[in-house]
Amino acid sequence: MKIMQYHDTETRVEIPSMRGMCTDIEWQTRVDLAACYRLIDLFGMSDLISTHISARIPGTEEFLINPYGYLFEEITASSLVKVSIEGEIISRADESLHINPAGYMVHSAVHQGREDAMCVLHTHTRAGAAVAAMECGLLPLNQTGMRFWNATGYHDYEGPVVDLDERARLQKSLGQHNALILRNHGLLTCGPTIAEAFYLMRALERSCQIQIDAMASQTPLRLPSDEVLAKTAHLFDRSVRRAYGMKEWPALLRKLDKIDSSFRH
Predict the structure, then answer these.
(1) What whole-number distance in Å separates Cα of residue 61 and Cα of residue 265?
(2) Hey, CA dihedral for 144, 211, 138, 33, is it positive or negative?
(3) How far apart, in whole angstroms, are the C-alpha atoms of residue 265 and residue 254?
(4) Dihedral of CA 184/37/140/220: which sign?
(5) pLDDT digits (tens, 9 = 90+) for 2-30
(6) Which of 5, 25, 70, 72 could cross-link to 46 by cystine, CB 3.0-4.6 Å?
């Protein structure tokens, strides 16, 4: 089966199905990652063809990433490009599919430095970029935001990520956190599953939105005590409570299927 896709405004590209060309586990990863792209767009966190989401294929050092030039709403399981940690394209459904070097740099840095990071999301949202430009960074103003207290890294802006040397600095900034604020740039989350990484990005984005709204009110802001913040952040930890995102994921897929199930192709 071939799915019709648009690569640019003038050329219509036929994307062959990759279903019979990969393992079952790779195909499932492709479907879930394509769903994640659609969800990021659905929840208003996409930026035209910019930013990326990647997922490591379980049991390998290879990961999947979007073809450069496609809107997130167009991404399908078969259109995703498989690359090595070193940036070599391993497989793609069509020779016209390429990747964004800057996107590869950011995502390969996390996949290389964190074996537990199966999925990595990076966004340029309005609220996320605004908080990334604030000297105070993310404030624990609400329960959603408190989960990130002492659990978020910060990385100073060095320009568009095109320097291989910056990968080591990105890894150091992220450390063992699953959330990273890229100063003057945007947001990044990662996780052991696509579902968890997506849920965390949505929580981080909402925390930034709430902070912008609260600060815009121009009234004094109330912060809980460090003791309460520590307790709350601890209770959101994966080792203490359920893996947030896993229960939500089937429902989110059902929502996508009602809207447009082409992500599965």
Answers:
(1) 24
(2) positive
(3) 16
(4) positive
(5) 333 334 434 446 789 999 999 999 999 99
(6) 72
In angstroms, the CA 214 to CA 235 distance is: 24
How distant, in Å, are the alpha carbons of 12, 59, 72, 79 from that of 3?
11, 28, 16, 9
Tokens coding 169? 């600095």
Alpha helices in 114-224 (DSSP H): 126-132, 143-146, 166-174, 194-216
Rounded Cα gap, residues 24 and 169, in angstroms: 35
CA atoms of 251 and 229, how far apart (whole Å): 30
Question: Does the model's pTM come out above 0.90?
Answer: yes
Task: Extract the tokens encoding 166.
Answer: 């910056």
Say what angle helices 24-42 and 194-216 make with each other, to 10 degrees: 10
Q: Is the CA virtual torsion 88, 93, 99, 104 positive or negative?
A: negative
By CB atoms closer than 10 A (0-12, 13-18, 19+), residue 32 is: buried
**Rounded CA gap, 220 and 125, in Å?**
26
Handedness of CA 170, 173, 179, 182 (dihedral sign): negative
